[in-house]
Amino acid sequence: MTGSLVIAGLGPGAEGMITPEVTAALSDATDVVGYVPYVNRVAPRDGLRLHPSDNRVELERATLALEMALKGQRVVVVSSGDPGVFAMASAVFEAMENRPDFQTLDIRVLPGITAMLAAAAAIGAPLGHDFCAINLSDNLKPFVLIERRLRLAAQADFAMAFYNPRSASRPEGFARVLEILREECGPDRLISFARAVSTPDQHTATVTLAEATAEMADMRTVVILGNASTRRVGRFVYTPRSAA
Amino acid sequence: MTGSLVIAGLGPGAEGMITPEVTAALSDATDVVGYVPYVNRVAPRDGLRLHPSDNRVELERATLALEMALKGQRVVVVSSGDPGVFAMASAVFEAMENRPDFQTLDIRVLPGITAMLAAAAAIGAPLGHDFCAINLSDNLKPFVLIERRLRLAAQADFAMAFYNPRSASRPEGFARVLEILREECGPDRLISFARAVSTPDQHTATVTLAEATAEMADMRTVVILGNASTRRVGRFVYTPRSAA
User: CB of B161 within 8 A of CB of B191?
Assistant: First the structure.
């Protein structure tokens, strides 16, 4: 039996945002691997083994998935959003380094609706011009690098999407991010907070940087900062297609 | 009758990448509006009027859609990829400025799989760390701003996704982009070209910046530049989750 590994994005939460190719891969799987809350989104059925694991064990999880595929199982690694954006795809490729046996496997990455795109759609079109995506978690990089990227992105007048803005273990980090953004972009720049996008708990709010506080974000929130031209129209926020 | 306007993303081309909520919106529509090749992707049926229009008439197209919604029609504006990324959502909001009648309409944006995410998935995980998305079309901004953004993004060590890299009307622009990137990132940086992603014509290639030529891209190509840590593993290209 020939095994396979699919790295699939489940989108931000709504069933209606899961692509048909991801649904088909899950229907064909023998094993589903992922962080507990994402594996919980996969319906159990006969013949499907679920392998939920804790957060911050990405490499071990990836290696488990690759080992099962090597044994002939049809494995799907699930991520929230898109697997290639601050999610499991990079961890799987990392686990393949120095393992030629893993590198010959049948491996496919299936994209998903990443959180910033669902958040942007809920808000209007704040990413309608050039933008960047920054993971604010400092687990995998020093804060000094985050600060450098924020300042350069502001100088480039990118709109910005921030993933993992705030956690219990480092509540002060996002407050410092807001200070840096106020220094670079001024008090009137629009910033949007989109929590639990596409789920029944969805909540969005847009304020100016002067009004923004760290408490407006938690780990279920995606934060989108506009560029210098971003503005409101009716109940929406959008960034024009033309540069200022 | 109450009209509505949905701005929907059809994804990069494959049927299997169209989300169920977009399919449902199209099934419920009375009118579909969009650029010719995207409207051509919508199956005709009784009771559905198709309104294809040419490229570069985005504001007129958006106004037509809003006018029809105001008359009570259920209108879907279709974009390729995601409507909020270099596509129709910003044009619709632009057309709503100074039109309070448009601003009270029932309007929703439905996200889609944008080209860079499908391209990244086909290549591996080149956008697995902080990244930016830049529209290289200079229809809506001067080249001097593109150059400034490229240099700042390189200094921030963002991976970069480039939309609309090259057109017949300005073939020299992308050659200049490659020169700037070589100056900022050196000759060994990996750059991937993904053409017609998710369609039967899909073709991907990864080379170094030293090897890259402008002819490797056309208007159906998304180009992804790695960051300083991006590397190959087997037949894939990925960017590690940790900063260098």
Answer: no
In angstroms, the CA A76 to CA A87 distance is: 14
pLDDT, average across residues B131-158: 94
Exposed / middle / buried, residue B227 (Cβ in 10 Å: 0-12, 13-18, 19+): buried
Nearest CA in chain A to B119: A111
pLDDT at res. A2: 84
Using CB atoms, pick whichever of A109, A133, A134 lies closest to residue B125.
A109
Cβ count near B212 (within 10 Å): 26
Rounded to the nearest 10 degrees, the angle between the axes of helix A58-70 and helix A88-96 is: 60
Are residues B82 and A156, on separate chains, in Cβ contact within 8 Å? no
Measure the CA–CA gap between B80 and B228, rounded to whole angstroms.
31
- CA–CA min distance B15, chain A (Å): 8
User: If you ran DSSP here, which 8-state letter would residue A61 be given?
Assistant: H
- How much is the ipTM here? 0.97
Distance CA(A210)–CA(A189), nearest Å, equals 8
DSSP secondary structure string, A117-162? HHHHHHHEETTSSSEEEEE---SSS-HHHHHHHHHHHHHTT-EEEE
Quick check: helix, strand or coil at residue A20? helix
**What is the distance between the alpha carbons of residues A34 and A29, in angstroms, rounded to a whole number?**
13
Model pTM score: 0.97
pLDDT, tens digit (0-9, with 9 covering 90-100), for A88-117: 999 999 999 999 999 999 999 999 999 999
Contacts of B168 (CB under 8 A, 6+ apart): none
Beta carbons of A198 and A14 less than 8 angstroms apart: yes
